Backbone:
């Protein structure tokens, strides 16, 4: 009894001891942060801050330009002067004029800009450093309206839901395919998802590189990838338990649902990119581009159909899968068209990459289990490569 | 942009010392004219809230107007309180050792330039230490008037030194001004009288750009290049390369508000624009 109390007390003491490093660190941090430039002065002199703004978005309204700027550096940054096309213009600031670290404000300029012509905006700090953003063509920023809301939805349906639904129509034909060909189509699905994953990953790295150093970084991408990969892994475990094939991975509708989710997350990113580019006048949403995306995405429907070849399905299930994979495009187009969170966009593409890679793993396990000859068969290898090539070739149309 | 809406720094009389030159003095043999010029590192607010780390003579860019009558003995005591070596190089006729090229004045040192003021005209002074481009665009320059022995007709006299400021160090000017502050005379128009002769001493010290110019609205003026000789041009627009200067004379025909600006639209929209209030 006595000994038990003593050891419990000792355990508590050692737990409290764990706080000691934290307290000491707090003291050290306080000492360093109050020392100013003392350490730098021992070695040399700190260079002056860059004093450049991060111009996040330039919006064109009737007779008005709105410039969203952020301070990407630790030191405060003051908006002192604004130029449009290399001419000083009067301006007002919606928000603080002196921006603390990572703070944003919107500069409003009354300006009679010329439709479709190149234009540049420059923001000068109090230290005289000018940050210039060149806009290739001034295009009126779409106002949130019922029309544009409907327009984005329609584009999302056309490039997201419709092609996936069309791809699912291959299902009856797939039901009559032999085991080896079915394995090849499953590998094809893995190939196209791998392609989407790499594409999303590259986009995520590109977007994070545009962020201020403090907000960006490969870690942000890793966070997104890990989040979705592990989330999808947990989901796959749950779905395969539900279908009664414990421990052997997802099959049938469960696997099709995973594929649909993987594609859906990717399509949300695709919609986001389309909406954002269109809103800032960087993208011509012509018939050619929409057709390109449709052809590109029809293969995604095939990917969802392949795992269903041996499963019993209803029209309702198929419609549900098409919506899971395609409808996020609509949501993405709305988010991209009406908001501007570059951090979320980078994180988003990372999430899409992680989801795609997880489904590749899941499909790979399925092929290894079900296909005659497993992953090493020529059908599996050929199917995977065909999936990558199909995405690449149809991607040329969407590019 | 005019009046309150023009983005200019400071109050209505801040630049009077640069705009209105000291009065001309009638010729008197053997007179000595003394000036003291001190080089300093000074942060200048060239546009509202925009600070330029300038090198100046007596705290402004352009520096003070130096004025003498032809034949005066000019004695300019120069003290360098700046962080870099500087000189004063005067345009005009003087001995080699008074030229401000070879005798570099180090930080904390002094040198007195002494020579006879000639020839009559509008001249310049500027630092000639190397790198030359840096020492000039940082702000070390000013107008140097030598009045003829035979005095010019009485007039309301103004000095306008055209310059630019490259605040972000990319070799291009971000702001253009007359006498050092962009849009200053758009915010505070220069008041002149219609019945009175107005004389403007105009010089160009703009770095980086090949030329600068002045265009006057609603009237014509007489322009005497370098303020020397008998040749006068009748025009409303003059062009000067860096270091060129001349004398403008005008009697305004109408009262009202008349714009003047560089006829390079870019310079005008980056600060080199102002107004005369003719009363």
Residues:
């Amino acid at each position: 009894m006595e000994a038990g109390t003593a050891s419990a007390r000792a355990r508590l003491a050692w737990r409290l001891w764990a706080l000691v490093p934290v307290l000491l660190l707090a003291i050290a941090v306080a000492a360093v942060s109050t020392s100013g430039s003392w350490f730098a002065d021992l070695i040399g002199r700190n260079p002056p801050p860059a004093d450049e703004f991060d111009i996040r978005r330039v919006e064109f309204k009737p007779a008005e330009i709105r410039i969203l700027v952020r301070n990407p550096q630790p030191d405060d940054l003051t908006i002192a002067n604004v130029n449009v096309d290399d001419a000083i213009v009067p301006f007002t600031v919606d928000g603080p004029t002196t921006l603390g670290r990572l703070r944003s404000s919107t500069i409003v300029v009354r300006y009679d800009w010329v439709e479709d012509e190149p234009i540049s905006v420059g923001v000068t700090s109090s230290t005289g450093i000018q940050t210039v953003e060149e806009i290739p063509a001034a295009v009126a920023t779409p106002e949130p309206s019922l029309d544009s809301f409907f327009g984005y939805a329609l584009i999302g349906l056309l490039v997201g839901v419709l092609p996936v639904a069309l791809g699912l129509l291959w299902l009856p034909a797939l039901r009559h395919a032999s085991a080896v060909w079915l394995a090849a189509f499953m590998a094809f699905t893995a190939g196209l998802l791998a392609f989407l994953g790499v594409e999303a990953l590259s986009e995520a790295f590109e977007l994070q590189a545009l962020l201020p150093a403090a907000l960006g970084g490969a870690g942000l991408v890793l966070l997104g990838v890990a989040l979705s990969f592990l989330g999808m892994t947990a989901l796959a475990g749950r779905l395969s338990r539900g279908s009664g094939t414990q421990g052997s991975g997802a099959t049938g509708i469960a696997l099709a649902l995973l594929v649909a989710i993987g594609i859906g997350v990717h399509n949300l990113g695709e919609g986001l990119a389309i909406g954002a580019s269109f809103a800032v006048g960087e993208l011509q949403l012509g018939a050619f581009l929409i057709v390109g995306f449709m052809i590109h995405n029809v293969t995604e429907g095939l990917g969802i159909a392949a795992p269903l070849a041996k499963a019993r399905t209803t029209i309702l299930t198929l419609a549900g899968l098409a919506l899971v994979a395609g409808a996020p495009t609509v949501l993405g187009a709305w988010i991209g068209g009406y908001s501007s969170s570059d951090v979320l966009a980078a994180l988003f593409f990372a999430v899409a990459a992680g989801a795609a890679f997880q489904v590749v793993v899941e499909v790979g396990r399925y092929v290894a289990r079900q296909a005659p000859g497993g992953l090493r068969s020529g059908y599996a290898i050929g199917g995977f490569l065909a999936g990558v090539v199909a995405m690449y070739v149809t991607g040329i149309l969407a590019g | 942009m005019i009046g309150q809406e023009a983005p200019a720094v400071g109050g209505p009389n801040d630049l009077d010392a640069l705009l209105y030159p000291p009065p001309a003095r009638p010729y008197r043999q053997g007179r000595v004219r003394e000036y003291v010029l001190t080089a300093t590192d000074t942060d200048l607010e060239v546009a509202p809230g925009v600070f330029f780390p300038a090198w100046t003579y007596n705290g402004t860019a352009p520096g003070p107007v130096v004025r003498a009558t032809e034949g005066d003995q000019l004695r300019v005591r120069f003290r360098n309180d700046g962080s870099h070596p500087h000189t004063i190089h005067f345009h005009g006729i003087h001995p080699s050792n008074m030229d401000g090229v070879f005798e570099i004045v180090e930080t904390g040192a002094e040198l007195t330039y002494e020579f006879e003021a000639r020839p009559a005209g509008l001249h310049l002074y500027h630092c000639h230490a190397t790198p030359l481009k840096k020492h000039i665009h940082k702000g070390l320059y000013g107008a140097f008037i030598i009045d003829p022995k035979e005095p010019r007709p009485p007039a309301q006299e103004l000095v306008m030194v055209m310059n630019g400021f490259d605040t972000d160090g990319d070799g291009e000017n971000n702001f253009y001004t007359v006498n050092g502050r962009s849009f200053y005379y758009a915010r505070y128009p220069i008041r002149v009288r219609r019945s009175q002769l107005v004389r403007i001493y105009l010089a160009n010290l703009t770095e980086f750009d090949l030329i600068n110019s002045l265009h006057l609205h609603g009237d014509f003026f007489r322009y005497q290049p370098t303020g020397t000789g008998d040749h006068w041009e009748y025009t409303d627009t003059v062009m000067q390369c860096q270091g060129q200067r001349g004398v403008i004379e005008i009697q305004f025909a109408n009262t009202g508000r008349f714009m003047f600006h560089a006829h390079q639209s870019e310079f005008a929209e980056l600060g080199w624009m102002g107004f005369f209030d003719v009363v």
Remarks:
- The first strand of chain B starts at residue 32 and ends at 47.
- The domain at 153-278 of chain B is CATH 2.60.40.420 (Immunoglobulin-like).
